[in-house]
């Protein structure tokens, strides 16, 4: 199975790369699937926000996220811009699934959805938002990196 993102980037993940398509991929949930262009824009915004060096960004683009504050907060920023995470509620499993499906119909009872849900904890540890986002994103990328990478084609 392919896995971001990123999302993921869950990272977010997490963007549909269909050049020339509209950003209006709303599939009833109110979530609009993000594109590769969105990911590039979010990378720039988030790199600036966390003061990431060019070397840091080069690692991030290669899905290399060290367990350090800058990387954790970078991932949180990406996930927030994708609309997949917020510091109060954590990850939105349904939106992540929709992003990874790239606008296709999703079955929220399938294996991918369960893998996302398994990684989207409720922060019982009481971690800061950056650590929470990083933990969930890295968990999902470990089990589904190819799917995340395909969804963003970055």
TrEMBL record:
Q: What is an annotated GO biological process for this record, any one?
A: sensory perception of smell
* Gene3D superfamilies attached to this UniProt entry: Pheromone/general odorant binding protein domain
Any Pfam family the entry gives:
PBP_GOBP
Question: What is the superkingdom listed in this entry's lineage?
Answer: Eukaryota
Residues spanning the signal sequence: 1-15
The text of the family note is: Belongs to the PBP/GOBP family.
Give the protein name, as stated in the record: Odorant-binding protein 99b
- Name of the gene: Dmoj\Obp99b
Provide one Gene Ontology cellular component: extracellular space
Q: Where in the cell is it found?
A: Secreted
Q: Which GO terms describe its molecular function?
A: odorant binding
SMART domains per UniProt: PhBP (SM00708)
Question: Which UniProt keyword terms apply here?
Answer: Disulfide bond, Secreted, Signal
């Amino acid at each position: 199975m392919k896995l971001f993102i990123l999302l993921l980037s869950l990272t977010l993940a997490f963007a549909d790369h269909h050049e020339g398509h509209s950003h209006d991929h709303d599939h009833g949930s109110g979530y609009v699937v993000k594109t590769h262009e969105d990911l590039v824009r979010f990378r720039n915004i988030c790199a600036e926000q966390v003061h990431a060096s060019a070397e840091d960004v080069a690692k991030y683009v290669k899905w290399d996220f060290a367990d350090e504050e800058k990387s954790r907060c970078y991932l949180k920023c990406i996930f927030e811009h994708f609309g997949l995470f917020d510091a109060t509620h954590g990850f939105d499993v349904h939106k992540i699934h929709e992003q990874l499906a790239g606008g296709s119909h999703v079955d929220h009872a399938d294996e991918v959805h369960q893998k996302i849900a398994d990684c989207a904890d409720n922060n019982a540890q009481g971690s800061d938002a950056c650590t929470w986002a990083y933990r969930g994103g890295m968990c999902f990328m470990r089990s589904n990196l190819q799917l995340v990478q395909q969804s963003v084609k970055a």
